[in-house]
Amino acid sequence: MKRKLAIIAAALVGTSLIFGSGFYLGLRSWNLIFPGMTDLTTSTVGLMPLQLHIEQLDRGDNEALRESLNLELDGQIIKTFQLLKESTDQNQNDKTSRFLRKIAKHRALHPATYPASVSSPDQDQAAKYVNSILSEFIEYKGESNQKMKADEK
To answer: Can you give the pLDDT at residue 48?
Structure first.
């Protein structure tokens, strides 16, 4: 009987150690998979586009600034749309949908332009995907600008 209890206790301790080790490694998996990706690295990567935009503004290259901002906006539109499809928070979904509708209306009036240096079939496909996403949020085709402005508020 004592031997049986000792085996059960050893099994529980072993299982606990394995579970604890797995949990610890899971928490650290980001650093194991991407050992160089620290908060500092992530922050530095975030600085790069901001610096590029400031340089474009300083040299008066508004078209290049507009193009690079469109690329960033497209990425955020795709990401936001995916998150919206997965979200169950109806209040947040409504707010996000209103904002995507605002972006869609602006894009309808001011179509996106992109740098020639990123012209590729992949970029064309991404632009078509973004346009298809935004087309889901345009509800006020042909209505007056005053109603559109009232709905945006």
So the answer is: 87
The count of domains in the chain is 1
* DSSP run (H or E) holding 88: none
**What 3-state DSSP class applies to 92?**
helix
CA distance 39 to 141: 44
pLDDT of 34 above 80:
no
- Distance between CA atoms of residues 112 and 135, nearest Å: 14
Residue 47 in any domain: the answer is no
Contact 31, 37 (CB under 8 A): yes
Residue 72: domain span: 62-152
DSSP state of 141: T
